[in-house]
Fold this protein.
Amino acid sequence: MGAVVSFFVPISLFAGFLEGKVLGNSNVVEKEAVEMCANIATEALNNIRTVASLGIERRFINSYTEALMESHRYLVIISIL
């Protein structure tokens, strides 16, 4: 019984370490994506007259959506692991 426990304890500790690393990395990626989206939205809203007069609303919407989707793709891959 002691041999079985001494075999699985290091494996369980290593798995916990890996889980912590993965969750830590996903938080960083999510934070960066939210910051990027906030910057895009702030830029569009601060310059709303220029954006509207040039007709580039769709460009800002696409940039915002792309930033969110990049984070989403990464988080889906991490959740599968």
In short: Residues 2-46 form the longest helix (45 residues). The mean pLDDT is 82.
